[in-house]
């Protein structure tokens, strides 16, 4: 079984690393998935990082018509892509699932389904690649834990500088008052 190593790269570069046939060197992520299926591969794994991977069957793509200007092509062709990924039913680790569900992101529904719409490109294949890269980026953002904030205190020089600035402003405002005789 070939494993697809996915890292977040710009769309012009391939999404994989590792041992794949030489014929696959210049293809983007979803094209590699399709080609590997042609090599009689039953399942593909999309690797987010060294420890986390998801099965290709957990990601569901559906083609829809794109919005906006585009002439006749936009009315005839289903070039936009909806990507759906169910967090609860996925093979992600529990901690990653909890972080995804806790994330305040408009792409994650209350039911725990990630919905990503991609319609930047005119071709469906590029939109699939773009949607998949955005999913990978979203999942990868939950794998790193945030550093705990260490509260700091202002230095003595900073305190003195702040008080001197306040004193200057106070003197300027005092000078604006009416003169009493």
Could you give a quick summary of the protein structure above?
The protein has 181 residues and is α+β, with helices and mostly antiparallel strands. It has one domain (3-143): Double Stranded RNA Binding Domain (2-Layer Sandwich). It has 5 helices and 6 strands.
Overview of this protein structure:
The protein is α+β, with helices and mostly antiparallel strands. It has a single domain, classed as 2-Layer Sandwich (Double Stranded RNA Binding Domain). It has five helices and six strands, in the order E-H-E-E-E-H-E-H-E-H-H. The strands form two sheets. Strands 1-2-3 form a three-stranded mixed beta sheet, with helices on one face. It has a three-stranded antiparallel beta sheet with strand order 4-5-6, with helices on one face. Strand 2 and strand 3 form a beta hairpin. The longest helix is centred in the C-terminal third of the chain and has 20 residues. The chain starts with a strand and ends in a 6-residue tail after the last helix.
List the defining traits of the structure above.
35% helix, 3-stranded mixed sheet, elongated, 181 residues, disordered N terminus, 5 helices, 3-stranded antiparallel sheet, Double Stranded RNA Binding Domain, alpha+beta
Largest sheet: 3 strands, mixed
Task: Tell me the β content.
Answer: 15-25%
How helix-rich are the residues, as a percent range? 25-40%
Tell me the domain tally: 1
Count of alpha/pi helices: 5
How many runs of DSSP E, i.e. beta strands?
6
Mean pLDDT: 78
From the structure provided, what is the oligomeric state, counting identical versus distinct chains?
Answer: single chain
CATH topology: Double Stranded RNA Binding Domain
Order of helices and strands: EHEEEHEHEHH
Name the overall outline: elongated
- CATH-level-2 architecture: 2-Layer Sandwich
CATH class: Alpha Beta
Secondary-structure class: alpha+beta
- Low-pLDDT sequence parts: 1-20, 34-40
Rg measurement, Å: 26 Å
- Taking the alpha carbons of the first and last residues, their distance comes to 95 Å
- Strand sequence of the main sheet, in spatial order? 1-2-3
């Amino acid at each position: 079984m070939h494993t697809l190593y996915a890292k977040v790269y710009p769309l012009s570069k391939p999404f994989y690393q590792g041992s794949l046939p030489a014929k696959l060197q210049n293809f983007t992520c979803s094209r590699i998935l399709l080609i590997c299926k042609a090599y009689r591969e039953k399942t593909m794994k999309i690797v987010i990082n060294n420890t986390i991977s998801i099965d290709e069957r957990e990601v569901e793509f559906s083609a829809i018509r794109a919005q906006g200007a585009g002439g006749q092509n936009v009315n005839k062709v289903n070039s936009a892509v909806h990507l759906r990924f169910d967090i609860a039913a996925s093979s992600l680790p529990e901690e990653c699932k909890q972080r995804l569900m806790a994330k305040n992101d408009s792409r994650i529904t209350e039911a725990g389904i990630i919905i990503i719409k991609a319609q930047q490109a005119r071709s469906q294949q590029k939109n699939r690649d773009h949607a998949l890269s955005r999913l990978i980026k979203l999942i990868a953002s939950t794998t790193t834990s945030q550093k705990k904030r260490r509260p700091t205190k202002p230095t003595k020089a900073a305190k003195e500088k702040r008080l001197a600035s306040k004193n200057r402003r106070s003197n300027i405002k005092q000078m604006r008052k009416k003169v009493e005789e």
